[in-house]
Design goal:
The chain has 21 helices and 7 strands. The chain is mainly α. The chain folds into 2 domains: 7-369, no CATH class; 380-490, no CATH class.
Length: 491
């Protein structure tokens, strides 16, 4: 009769740990994913662009509020649009591609850690990545960055396979870089830069004579050039002004004066948000730099991957923690190596693995059973008023707003109601002028402005109250036929 494994034996079993990672990652990235709305600005903007792909039928030129929009590369919006086709138009569908890419990146880093080190390092790196706050936070957002991290990780994993197993993997490497560019434009070029630096510093000159390598290079360039050409043919100077000058060059420099220490913002972010893994990452980086890792090529790859993005992006004027997303997978590898070296006794490493599995299993149960929110409630007021906006604006009633910023209001309002408020006024006297016409006019305002509205606007009627926002009108409206979605946007 086959002996049953004890829990201690299971926690040290590679297959069981892999199953644990699957269950844990499914919980971290997908549990209660559709609850609590979408965040402004980015989530709602991308979710709306994806929605308008299905509305316009145009998969190459993205649209926002019916007009061509050249801000972003299209791949993530394609994935969200396909998600809508599968799951229906919902918050869950808008977030699903990012969560899926987070899930897949965890297992890519597990596999890469296994190749570069061993299965235990791969397991530690995967668990560290899944529990890295910025990574799992933004994997649960409808944003581009975790998807970018997936393709960057895939490209550099393909590089390792091409160098160690078969140069045909350079085709996958080039395809992944092309898809990274299609995800976030210029930020997708980093794996190409890292690769060239790596090959030069590692003395891998012969690779530059390999046809598979140049096939991968041409694949990456071809995908990127095809997208740029498609945008320029249709958008011309609008594409240049919006994407190249505003989106890309606007992040490089502007007129704001900055002190030298402002460029250390990413370091501050890591010390703020990378707990509890920052000590292990620092120790691992120290060990690697001083040469404790005997594999020179692995040392070079980890250093270049973890530091190139950090150094380059620190020189830019725009610095957000999610711009480091593509470095978090390799930081997980570095932290795993540091943690493994730190705990040098085999019995203590076994205790660490057992503790990770024990706490992880408890987290799986608690997060799935207890009614705790895993995300902040986003754009609650907009979700409250959106059915009323949709009901009346669908009938041709005008929609304006008071003391709102255009994208700050309309990204979410467009996604949840299909309508944008325009124009947006700062003066209550303008609302009085708008409300004086015979046509029905709706206005999105704030509760704090009601006292001023009551004084300045002769006739107005409340349509729907939120916690902060209020929808008012110049006509008394019958709201009995307004159809709310009974959870459509929450599931």
């Amino acid at each position: 009769m086959k002996k049953k494994l004890t829990f201690s034996e299971l926690a040290l079993n590679e297959n069981f740990r892999l199953l644990f990672l699957i269950l844990f990652s499914l919980t971290v990235f997908f549990t209660k994913l559709g609850l609590n709305g979408l965040a402004n600005y980015d989530d709602c903007f991308y979710a709306e662009e994806a929605k308008e792909i299905l509305k316009t039928g145009n998969w190459m030129i993205l649209h926002y509020n019916g007009a061509a929009a050249y801000h972003n590369a299209p791949l993530f919006m394609w994935l969200v649009a396909l998600s809508y086709e599968v799951f229906g138009l919902s918050v869950y569908a808008a977030k699903f591609p990012s969560a899926l890419m987070g899930f897949l990146t965890v297992f890519l880093i597990y596999y890469l850690g296994k190749i570069l080190f061993d299965a235990t390092h791969g397991f530690l790196a995967a668990f560290i990545l899944a529990t890295t706050y910025p990574f799992f936070k933004y994997a649960r957002h409808s944003m581009l960055d975790v998807t970018l991290a997936f393709f960057v990780t895939l490209s550099l994993a393909a590089l390792v396979l091409a160098l160690r197993k078969n140069p045909k993997y350079f085709w996958l490497w080039g395809l992944s870089i092309g898809l990274a560019v299609l995800t976030k434009s210029a930020l997708g070029v980093f794996p190409l830069l890292i690769t060239f630096l790596f090959l030069i510093l590692a003395g891998r000159w012969r690779i530059f004579l390999n046809l598979h390598f140049w096939g991968g290079v041409l694949t990456a360039i071809g995908i990127s050039a095809a997208w740029v050409a498609s945008q320029y043919v249709v958008g011309g100077q609008d594409f240049i002004n919006t994407h190249l000058k505003f989106i890309i060059l606007g992040k490089v420099s502007d007129d704001r004066p900055e002190a030298w220490y402002d460029h250390l913002g990413f370091i501050k972010d890591l010390f703020t948000f990378y707990w509890p893994w920052i000590p292990a990452a620092i120790y691992g980086l120290f060990q690697i730099i001083r040469g404790d890792l005997k594999d020179r090529e692995t040392t070079l790859l980890l250093l270049l991957w973890s530091l190139t993005v950090l150094i380059v992006m620190s020189c830019m004027k725009t610095r957000y923690i999610w711009y480091l997303m593509q470095s978090l997978p390799t930081l997980a590898l570095v932290a795993a190596y540091g943690l493994y070296q730190w705990i040098d006794l085999p019995e203590n490493r076994e205790k660490l693995l057992k503790s990770i599995v024990s706490m992880g299993l408890a987290a799986i149960v608690l997060l799935n059973v207890l009614p705790m929110a895993l995300d902040k409630d986003r754009e609650k007021d907009t979700r409250i008023i959106a059915p009323y906006v949709k009901h009346f604006a669908d009938s041709g009633d005008r929609l304006i707003a008071l003391r709102e910023e255009y994208f700050g209001l309309n990204n979410a309002l467009l996604f949840f109601s299909n309508h944008a408020a325009e124009p947006l006024y700062q003066d209550v006297a303008d609302i009085q002028k708008e409300f004086s016409v015979n046509q029905t006019v709706l206005c999105v305002a704030h509760r704090e402005d009601l006292a001023e509205i009551q004084k300045a606007v002769t006739v107005w009627y409340p349509v729907k109250y939120g916690d902060d926002l209020i929808l008012i009108s110049n006509q008394k409206l019958d709201v009995s036929d307004v159809q709310t979605w009974s959870g459509l946007w929450q599931n």
